[in-house]
TrEMBL record:
SMART domains xrefs: AAA (SM00382)
GO molecular function: ATP binding; ATP hydrolysis activity
Keywords: ATP-binding, Nucleotide-binding, Transport
The UniProt record lists the keyword Metal-binding: no
Protein's name in the database: Metal ABC transporter ATP-binding protein
Source lineage: Bacteria, Bacillati, Actinomycetota, Actinomycetes, Mycobacteriales
Amino acid sequence: MTASVPAIDIRGARLRFGDRVLWSDFDLTVAPGEFVAVLGPNGSGKTSLLRTLLGQYRLDAGTISIDGRNGTDRSKIGYVPQQRPHDEGVPLRGRDLVGMGVDGRAWGVGWRNRKARKAAVDLAIDQVDARAFVDAPLGLLSGGEQQRMRVAQALASDPVVLLCDEPLLSLDPANQARVAQLIDRRRRAAATAVVFVTHEINPVLPYVDRVVYLVDGRFRIGTTDEVMNSAVLSELYRTKVDVLRVRDRLVVVGADEAACHGAEAL
Ligand SMILES: Nc1ncnc2c1ncn2[C@@H]1O[C@H](COP(=O)(O)OP(=O)(O)OP(=O)(O)O)[C@@H](O)[C@H]1O
């Protein structure tokens, strides 16, 4: 049996802005279908990691390959940005947004077959269960519905890798759960690797295979149990941190900054 080609392979990576090194000697291999959560305090470099994968930031050292090929490859990556409301005056419908995701993939080629384009749009819409509101103006949709449209847009290009930058921010718990569930369903159905930046691990806790936790240039990568424990977080934060499991949630106690990073803090 041959091992599958990694969806993402980052080796010996270093990212630096001026004198500030965000991370170095960073190795991360993400398998097809794997769900990786990226956690850490404000400014620890989570978004910069996504931007590097998107090809917007250039590594100072090391390499990245996507789907077995050297370098980043935007055509194989779907990107879900932070939730922010669409302007009510924008005359776009959800279907138009998803269509833009489909056209992005076919850039330079063009959809000769309108039927195939429509099928790709409909498939992405179905993947986020959005038929009921896909023809309404985007500005009139709820935050959760808008975010589902953004997930559909990112999935429309049938990506190998799905990068999500705090897609649950400002959604209520029910919508957080819904969006997280839809992303999980897709990665299972299509073996799409997911890299999911989040301040709050609990909504994705059932789905996370591994955690990347960044703090001030230090990082730890491993399963949730390997990373989200008192010893590891105390070492990363260089202060006493306790991680408790309360029912099916993780609660981080003792690091002031932890209030808004990996889990709820007391
Ligand atoms: N293009 C850039 N030029 C210079 N510094 C940058 C640039 N992009 C990001 N930074 C700096 O790198 C650090 C990490 O930023 P980044 O946005 O990756 O953090 P983050 O962990 O995503 O934070 P947050 O949780 O607040 O979104 C910050 O101090 C930021 O100011």
